[in-house]
Design brief:
- Helix content is 66%, strand content 0%.
- With 109 residues, it is an all-alpha fold.
- The chain folds into 2 domains: 76 residues, MazG-like (Helix Hairpins, Orthogonal Bundle), CATH 1.10.287.1080; 32 residues, no CATH class.
- The protein is globular and about 50 Å long.
- The N and C termini lie far apart (41 Å).
- The chain binds magnesium ion.
Length: 109
């Protein structure tokens, strides 16, 4: 079992011990992920770019990752594979020779 699979198994065990799977439909997992991403954003609100509290940053980032993993698990997705597939697409959209050193979107390169 990979590290990611072990992590998902731990999150699942936490969820199942509390009988929370009944609440974890795809829509609500996506909503929860977005809310946690907003909580992550809030840590930067009215502060400098690098001034978020490191402990709070870890906690909110973990919340985002856990909901993302639960959503992937719900859909039977292989997290490593979908990230690798997306990286391949990103490599095609952002070839180094065009994208290096610029923050432009792919359609503006
Ligand atoms: Mg949170």
């Amino acid at each position: 079992m990979s590290d990611i699979q072990q992590l998902i198994a731990k999150i699942r065990a936490f969820r199942d011990a509390r009988d929370w799977e009944q609440f974890h439909n795809s829509k609500d997992l996506a909503v929860a992920l977005s809310i946690e991403a907003s909580e992550l954003l809030e840590l930067f609100l009215w502060k400098g770019n690098e001034d978020a509290n490191p402990d709070k940053l870890k906690n909110e980032l973990a919340d985002v990752l856990m909901y993302a993993l639960l959503l992937a698990d719900k859909h039977g997705l292989d997290v490593k594979q979908i990230v690798e597939d997306k990286m391949k697409l990103n490599n095609e959209k952002y070839p180094v020779e065009k994208a290096k050193g610029t923050a432009k979107k792919y359609n503006e390169l």
